[in-house]
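Bench log. Compound arrived from synthesis this morning; before running ITC I wanted a structural hypothesis for how nicotinamide-adenine-dinucleotide sits in the protein. Inputs:
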Amino acid sequence: MLPASLASLRNYVDGEFVSTERQFDNISPLHGRLLGRVHEADAALVDRAVQAARKALEGPWGRSTVDERAAWLHKVADVIERRFDEFVAAEVADTGRPVTQARNLDVFRAIANLRTFADLGKVAHGECFESRTAQGEALLNYTVRKPLGVVASISPWNLPILSMTWKAAPALICGNTLVVKPSEETPSSATLLAEAFHEAGVPPGVFNLVHGFGANSAGAAMSAHPGIDGITFTGESRTGSTIMKAVADGVKEVSFELGGKNAAIVFADCDFDAAVEGVLRSSFANTGQVCLCSERVYVERPIFERFVQALKAGAEKLRIGYPDEPGVDMGSLISHKHRAKVLSYFKLAVEEGATVVTGGGIPHFGDERDDGAFIQPTIWTGLPDTARCVREEVFGPVCHIAPFDTEEEVVRRANDSNYGLAGTLWTTNLQRAHRVARQFDTGIVWVNTWYVRDLRTPFGGTKLSGLGREGGRWSLDFYSEVSNICIKVG
Ligand code: NAD
């Protein structure tokens, strides 16, 4: 059951929920029905949010200790825990994902993000050096961390509450204030998050939420606003480039988590069943809508045919359906519009000469589920490395499997990409695991597992996949302005 406040999704600025005249529909991908009306922020409301965030830096929040900020973040996490089922319902309604995923990944991680960064902030420390000049002056150098100021955070739709809290928690523990914008596709859990900040008694102006689109809407107004001190963005690489241009004049701090076209390498010496299970998950989890998903799979030739058949069997067993159906593995895509994009790649793959091993279309249920944005898990083989379907991010439940013969060859092919987010490696050879893992030209590598995250570790991508790293102390570094103080002590 969706909370009543999600029928009319308002902005949250300076501690108040704000309606606007301009509104747009929040539509369910499961049946195309209206979930709520979203109040779109214009440039004037974004400006109010930035001013409120600036003012809050001068109030109790700006004078708060890290312990006080940590206590506030824990209180927000407490509210989410108390309203857990509402957050799950919001996440499921907007995205069409299985309830079990929303419970075990999305909302669970939102709480973990808040609590982990609350605790990490307390142990963030600076550096201290003692030295003596040639003239004999004794010096003490030490660094202090200050907040950047007002941070803008723009989120995507694929993991809405997870992404938003992943940025909000470290930004706030470092003492910043925030203006956040969820994707226009997923306004619900962000609205509940604003309610959680309100309920937790976080001072007005510290956390501001604006709803809207990118270009000519709240997103563009945020990135162009001169009062923003830093911007953290997760989304498509093309959008990252647009935002970078918008902030260039102000020389703002940016942190970008962008797209991926990730490779999984499966060696013949792998634990076969674990590798099949792992690639099944890494290709089809969240209906393939995770930036870390493996859309390119390279399998060593001796096990290639067997692997393709085993993955096909696994994909065909995945249960597609409504979020609350028992045993459901895959929900819908985020929207019918996104399904049209994924289907256009399915068509392109055939034109490019792919063999469709399984899937390639829309499932037919023969009931009202046929109205949902469902799609079949799809496996291709037979494409050259130059094919667009092997080079461009599809962001749907699809992978291309290609055979390889040597380690050197597969490393070169895996790295032959404009993206560099994540690489996955399946082998039982320890030396090979270390050797190949460090050759991946990506920010993240998993060996014999996928998408397990210790929040203290760095996260980010190379090339078109991003700029900077977040996670653990890397987040604290991004959201802090570090000053060095040099004192003559003798
Ligand atoms: P998107 O770039 O279309 O939108 C992301 C956000 O940016 C939305 O809030 C949108 O309204 C806003 N936006 C769009 N145009 C804008 C503009 N001109 N100025 C300011 N804001 C603008 O991305 P999406 O479709 O929501 O998300 C999918 C993409 O996100 C995929 O490419 C995926 O790989 C990537 N992603 C990356 C990571 C990562 O950690 N690297 C994580 C999740 C998603």
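What the model suggests: The longest strand covers residues 138-147. Residues 27 and 33 are 6 Å apart (CA to CA).
ITC booked for Thursday regardless.
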